[in-house]
Amino acid sequence: FKEVGERMTKISVRSRGAIDAAALTAEFGGGGHLRAAGAEISEPMEEAIRLVIAAAHNALRIESRGG
Q1: Strand, helix or coil at 34?
Q2: Taking the C-alpha atoms of 32, 33, 35 and 40 in order, what is their torsion angle to the nearest 10 degrees?
Q3: How many other β-carbons are positioned within 10 Å of the β-carbon of residue 19?
């Protein structure tokens, strides 16, 4: 997470597991590759962190149920 403005946070996601980093960042208008991706979120860093962590938890729940 990198706060680049009052209401702008950049995220960089890396994955070594079953979660697709590009799919996770696509939820925020970003993209990339299976194991490395990024996005810009039009929210302050604290809110961006909350949103991304919630999306990651959801992706892990889905994966643990078999897709």
Answers
A1: coil
A2: 10
A3: 16
Token pair 């960089």 is found at 12
H or E, element range at 64: helix 45-64
Query: Residues 1-19: pLDDT tens digits?
Result: 999 999 999 999 999 987 8
Asked if 10 and 40 touch (Cβ cutoff 8 Å), the reply is yes
pTM score:
0.89
Q: Mean of the per-residue pLDDT values for the chain?
A: 94
Residue 11 in contact with residue 52, Cβ under 8 Å?
yes
Section 23-42 average pLDDT: 97
